[in-house]
């Protein structure tokens, strides 16, 4: 057994010294031509005592090993308790461990404090930046109206079309900024120690309409059709987080669908969101939920962050929902959500 080998190795010096003394003792008796019987008796007595001591000490060592082995599991729960030290060396080792534990706890506390401060800062930043974004939307609307009033009659149609296109492009970029800001906020909330999930029974149609309403301008801008009929299905979920999940799925569907349509329906008990976009390569499918993984489509797009589906998967895990993605390159992608 391993512990026996370890014990013998740990006490090899004492065992060797005791054996050497027995040999010296027997040699001296032999040289003085002592009778064989008392010599054998003395050596046997020494060996017997040695075996008794070794067995007793090894049993004690074995129990100590078992206690320390149990404490390894207790460390995970913070209930570990070291056995009492037997000598000064063990006492020093235990003091060293306690000091290391105190220092580790201090460093972990500092890290958690820094993380909390960083989370608070970025949460505040994401809320503050929404104000100038809203102001930019308002100023853009005013600027477009003023410029439209100044153009001549001959230039009216052409200029209005040009201004409308510029307005669309600016609004599209502002919408992307809002998306990125919202993603940062949800990422911080998801990784914070505060439980922000509230599970209730909701009508899925209400949640779906929120996501569709937000992306309606993108559907119009990209000339995509949406096939959606009221589902009249209830599910126990979190409205805010589920809305974010659907927004991310719709965002990907719109981004990678240049023409065709997107459909939302119930299929075999699953909420299905299907598009007719470029699809996902088979080798990318197993890793699409990995943090930072963008796959072939993301590398082609040059702007993908690889965070959206990672957040979707993490949120759904916390909600107790499941997600399955099926895709065929060139034909589209089907996302299934099971509540």
What key attributes describe this structure?
339 residues; alpha+beta; Heat Shock Protein 90; elongated
Helix content: 55-70%
Structural class: alpha+beta
Instruction: Assign the CATH class of the largest domain.
Output: Alpha Beta
- CATH architecture designation of the largest domain: 2-Layer Sandwich
Oligomer: single chain
Radius of gyration based on Cα positions = 37 Å
What is the helix/strand order?
Answer: HHHHHEHEEHEEHHEE
Residue-averaged pLDDT: 79
Organism: Petralouisia muris
Protein name: HAMP domain-containing histidine kinase
Keywords: Kinase, Transferase
Overview of this structure, please?
Keywords: Kinase, Transferase. This is HAMP domain-containing histidine kinase. It comes from Petralouisia muris. The chain is of the alpha+beta class and 339 residues long. It folds into three domains: 2-83; 118-190; 200-338, 2-Layer Sandwich (Heat Shock Protein 90). Helix content is 66%, strand content 12%. The chain has nine helices and seven strands, in the order H-H-H-H-H-E-H-E-E-H-E-E-H-H-E-E. It has a five-stranded mixed beta sheet, with helices on one face. It has a two-stranded antiparallel ribbon with strand order 1-3. The radius of gyration is 37 Å and the shape is elongated. The mean pLDDT is 79.
Summary?
With 339 residues, the protein is of the alpha+beta class. 66% of the residues lie in helices and 12% in strands. The strands form two sheets. A five-stranded mixed beta sheet has the order 2-4-5-7-6, with helices on one face. The chain has a two-stranded antiparallel sheet with strand order 1-3.
